[in-house]
Amino acid sequence: MFAKRCVTLPASRRTVNAVRPSGTPWRCLRVPWFMLSVRQAVPGDGPAYIELVRALAEFEKLPGPTDEAAARLLDDAFGPAPRYTLTVADIDGAVVAYAVTFPTYSTFLARPTLFLEDIFVHPRARRQGVATAMMGHLVEVARAGGYGRFEWMVLDWNTGAQFLYDGMGAERLDSWRLYRMVTAGAHPPG
Prior knowledge:
CATH architecture: 3-Layer(aba) Sandwich
Largest sheet: 5 strands, mixed
Number of helices: 4
CATH superfamily: Gcn5-related N-acetyltransferase (GNAT)
Strand order of the largest sheet: 3-4-5-6-7
Helix content: 25-40%
Structural class: alpha+beta
Number of domains: 1
CATH topology: Aminopeptidase
């Protein structure tokens, strides 16, 4: 059985699968709502999370985390001083997706920004509204937390994700470029 499930996205953006406060017409995605749950992860989700991180690495054709790195990921998510928030989606109790977020700060808005480091839906769970539900949940987290922005990056070849983000009304910032410097203790793959 399927039911309509809607998420609310920012009124300042064109939205899909949302009800806009302005009363603009909306449409909903048909998803099996009784099976899909988006929630903050708990330590018991750790093994499934590490499996998904390794699946993401395979998807991006990169080496996955070593056992030592996996232990750090779990400690940074669930330890005494978490470095990020881990959100998961499950279908019938099986974790099928995760998102890693943390706050940054916008001096121009004088507000925090919610930054999405990773979002990954296992291939067997795609096309079921999981990513849409997760993104809608994270928009609500940003809104409720007083964040001025919700930002993320996407690989240039990941056109499926770009289509989703464009459909949500997210703004593509083509004039910005990512820079990175590897610091002590970090070892880049390959």
